[in-house]
Amino acid sequence: xxxxxxxxxxxxxxxxxxxxxxHIFNYILFFQMYPFTTFTSLLAIAGAVSATLDxxxxxxxxQYPKNPSCSPSKTSNAIQAAxxxxxTRVSGKQTFAIFKVDHQYDKNNGAPYGTxxxxxxxxxxxxxxxxxxxxxxxxxx
Length: 141
Description:
This protein is an alpha+beta fold. It folds into two domains: about 1-50, no CATH class; about 60-140, Hepatocyte Growth Factor (3-Layer(bba) Sandwich). The protein has three helices and seven strands, in the order ββααββαβββ. The mean pLDDT is about 80.
C-alpha cells in the first residue's frame, strides 16, 4: 500500500497491493471529514434520549385500568403480548401498557395477538384495576 499525505491534511491511498487494514484509514478519513466535537455532540444527544428500553418489570394478567389518568402515548395493533411487554417504545418514560387480546388471531402462530397501548403517566393502583380475562397490564415501575 502506498499512502501519500496531501496538503491540508488530506490522506490519499494510491494502492492497496499489501494486505493492510484499510479500515483504519477509513476511520482517519472519517475524523478528518467530521471533527471530533461533532462526534461527541452526537454521542451526547444519543445519551440524552430517555426512551424506555427495558422490558416490563411486572404484569397483571386478567386486569386492566378502566380509566387511565392519561391518553396512550403509543398504540400498536395486531402485536403479540410479549412484544407489548418487551419491545413497545415511547419517547419518554413508559410506566405501564395495556394489552387487549384480539380473538380474530387466536389460531395464529405466536398468539395471543392484540392491541397494546403504552402510557407515560402514573401507573394505576390495584384498586383502580378492573377484572377482564381479555386484558393484560404490564408495568415498568
